[in-house]
Amino acid sequence: MVAKYYELGELESRAPKLFGIPTGTKLDEMFYKIEKEGDKYVKKPLGGIPHLAVMNLTGVPDSGKSVLAEQFAITQANAGYKVLFVTVESPAHFLYTALKQKSEALGADFSKVEENVVVIDASESEELRENPRALLDTMAYAIKEKKVTNVIIDSITGLYEHKEMMARQIVRQFFNFLKKWRQTGIFVSQKRSAQASESAEAAGGLAVAHIVDGTIVLDKKLIESRWDVSLYGLPIGSVLRTIRIDGCRMTGHDSRTWVFEITEFGTINIIAPLNEYIKRRRVGKEE
Amino acid sequence: MEIIVKPKGGNIDKMAEKVFMESINILGGLKKLVEYRNLTWLPSLAEAAYVVVLKNEAFKTYGEIAKELGITEQTARNIATADEEKVIEYIKGTLEEKPNEHIAGGIAKLAYRKLKEEGRLEEGEEVVMKNDEIEVLGIDWAVHALVRIKGLDFPVNKEQLEERLKGLVIKGKKAEEILEKLEYPIKSPAELLHKIKEHL
Known about the structure:
The structure holds two protein chains of two kinds. Chain A has one domain (17-217): 3-Layer(aba) Sandwich (Rossmann fold), CATH 3.40.50.300. Helices cover 34% and strands 27% of the residues of chain A. Chain A is built from ten helices and 14 strands. In chain A, strand 13 and strand 14 (268-273) form a beta hairpin. The termini of chain A are far apart. Chain B has one domain. Chain B is 58% helix and 4% strand. Chain B has twelve helices and three strands, in the order βααααααααααββαα. Chain B is globular, with a radius of gyration of 17 Å. The chains are: A alpha/beta, B mainly alpha.
């Protein structure tokens, strides 16, 4: 076998350009690049997740992972880009309804969304769920035929549900596949509620986080004690939702924890960094 | 919104068949196998081809492979971890003693690697050898039988096998006729192939 190596300079033409692929949320401003302006270096928002990045979106159940993934799909499809949505959990007709409702809430043209989103329904096909090669070949067909540029897999965890020991191999295959086909991708992965949010597992388990280009962690906190009430300034029984970019090897990013809400129309609205949010709530209360 | 619900590609049976045929090519082709009366290897080779494809393409665990093919987990593991280099040295005659490796496993792994590197595994093209030639020589039956019994829970009885193998012609004999002569229950696909071979 001939060993392959590259001189660094040879890679210039193949290196991806750094720009953002909008998600339709404030996340777009949370990734940034450094540019030189005159003598100074300035931080400039990227405007989305990095082009050609494969991002891992993780969180406990009902933390808004799918909502965010769907919002990304709508934003891209509405802008005229083709999106491949691989649904492993929710059957395709439920996804259709969710995309339709959210499109209206986001002011997107649903006819464009319909035209630009291609769905692979692995939720109802055992062969697609249990045989990664069959799914990869089907994805290759969709990407080739439909000229897809963005891929969402909701969820990647569903592809190795009962065999976590295969997780690394499976995730690696899908990651390499998206790189080969030059796709910007989102892997939704499920965090078990027992995994502490500050641990490595919070980034979707060891398998996923180390392979992908970056991780976005969604979390939710039930306000259940007097301490919580006084700290967050929220009524007891309410839910505080947070989002943070846990890491991204492709570009700089805001590393703070932000508070967000899922609006009544089922869309993501990122409000403020957690410390500022708490400050604001306290000031509001005192006034 | 276009919804794709059926797989397009990733056909494990087809890939295993390709690995099987390529394995025969590696062994010097059919003619050489016939000359040396080495056709007894074929069932093991067919089994090994399936294990290698299920492991590397469908990412199945040893437990899942064992269940699907009706072999033990240890056999599946031995096939998937066989040292190809040692096996090929043994085939070429450079090793004096038979290595402690799964021979068919090593050959199937070599064949798989070759197909993968040359990009022929996923392609739609048909198997490397001409199907007619294989059928004329009557050695394709092991693969065809394995494809037919896929997913069957072993041990099995005659009726279950008759249902699956109905219409299959094995070296000019009807599968139904061969099944009449076997003893039941049959514990695994490997045992089935061996028993069929004894009655050809």
